[in-house]
Write a structure and sequence with these properties.
Distance between the termini: 24 Å
Shape: elongated
Helix content: over 70%
Radius of gyration: 18 Å
Mean pLDDT: 91
């Protein structure tokens, strides 16, 4: 899997892993260790996903000669970093000790993060993906016919 297919797969995985964290937080039988491991897996997936977005989406937009694409690359990166900052703040506020004290509050906070994530995914897949796919199409065609 590569390109936008990889990013879309990672979107689905991020939502799934977020749902796992929500489910565990709401289950009194889930231990703090299990919840910490689920959060760590989610955090690692977020980091990998951001790196892949830079390689696949930002690079394609920045390589375009079209100023609108470069402006979109800037907006894409800026808003991605805002979401990443929000996630980092969430992890800082919701330490494992605080989660143990208030699992319900933690669940509410994770649901908010999931709403932000889903909104971001919807924007990317409806606005950004078609542009990046169009930029990739000529390059793919040139490779297929041997043009360099």
């Amino acid at each position: 899997m590569q390109g936008l297919d990889l990013i879309q797969h990672e979107h689905q995985e991020l939502v799934r892993l977020t749902d796992v964290v929500i489910e565990m937080a709401g289950d009194p039988a889930s231990s703090s260790e299990q919840l910490a491991a689920a959060r760590q897996t989610l955090g690692q997936t977020v980091n990998r996903h951001i790196a892949n977005k830079h390689k696949i989406i930002t690079a394609a937009l920045q390589a375009s000669a079209d100023p609108a694409h470069r402006a979109l690359a800037w907006r894409f990166t800026e808003e991605l970093m805002k979401l990443r900052q929000s996630t980092s703040e969430h992890y800082g506020v919701w330490t494992m000790a605080r989660i143990a004290e208030d699992r319900h509050g933690f669940t509410v906070a994770v649901r908010y993060q999931r709403r932000l994530l889903r909104a971001r995914i919807a924007w990317e897949e409806s606005v950004v993906f078609p542009i990046v796919a169009e930029l990739a199409a000529p390059a793919a065609m040139e490779r297929a016919v041997g043009i360099r």
